[in-house]
Amino acid sequence: MTITPTVAVAPVATSPYLTSVDALIQGLADVGYIASKRIATALYMSVHLQKPILVEGSAGVGKTELALSTANLLGLPLIRMQCYEGLDESKALYEWKYGKQLLYTQILKDRMGEQLSDAKDMDAAMERLHGMGDLFFSEPFLEPRPLMKALREDNGCVLLIDEIDKSDEAFEAFLLEVLSAYQVSIPELGVMVAKTPPLVFLTSNNVRDLGDALKRRCLHLHIPLPDAALERRIVASRVPDIEATLATQLVDFVQSLRTLDLRKSPSISETVDWARALILLNASSLDGEVVRDTLNVLLKFEQDIAAVEPQIVELIRRPVS
């Protein structure tokens, strides 16, 4: 059996937020995501060209959040698949409900005996058993996983394939059919084609190099750490209660930290977390004590904290913007 509905243009392409890149920037800002023109342009092209978008960059720069915000903006369901080493198609695409198959086999055991009682010979009995066996590999016994769920969404969805670089090359190759034709081949059922292509985001932290075949099927977007002006806008959007003076001070401090030789520089998400922590502690400005007490929100390794602590006062006084 081949399941091949007609592929349609995603209805979200007619959304007022997708009439221009500027409209998309404003729409994302309305749902709390401050996008640069490069980010919005890549997303705009991805939707209208029906191409997956591969989003790369260091952890915490907003790759996953871009997919979440896009689903929120366009009013689409979000289907997320977290990648890891050893991920295979049974976890990503589908698997059979073996427990249900076994239960039904036990229930139908007597009935199967009746059906085989008048078989002329072993070949005839095996032929009948073969027909019964096919019933157990049909839709009622199918357990869809994220990829199949995404292809089955009649009105489209946002499919987030998170941290694709953590999967292995075999799984990457398996994805090529989904990314190029929005379809999957199921041995027992045939080819399943998406009625409405999902909007696909793949994220990568560059743990390993991805194959050329996968990259050819995707638009590429690299999200760098933001400059001070953009980071202030992000903080103001995510922490609206913060005073402008404190926001400027903390962003300048974080920007200064990123110039140091640290094992892990603070990301955007950590800047936002720090801003929330400072609001929680009723801080109105940065001083050595409050920075020292909350430095563990920004830095995740003790050796980095130890390296920064002697420089705290100097970093606070060092203007960036």
Number of separate strands: 9
Chain-averaged pLDDT = 85
Q: Radius of gyration over alpha carbons?
A: 26 Å
Topology-level CATH name of the largest domain: Rossmann fold
Number of structural domains:
3
Q: Give helix and strand order, one letter per element, not per position.
A: HHEHEHEHHHEHEHHEEEHEHHHHHH
- Broad structural category: alpha/beta
The N- to C-terminal Cα distance equals: 63 Å
Percentage of β-strand residues: 5-15%
Note the main sheet.
Answer: 5 strands, parallel
Identify the overall geometry.
Answer: elongated
Spatial sequence of strands, sheet with the most strands: 2-5-8-1-9
* CATH class label of the largest domain: Alpha Beta
Q: Helix amount, in percent? A: 40-55%
Which second-level CATH architecture of the largest domain applies? 3-Layer(aba) Sandwich
Number of helices: 17
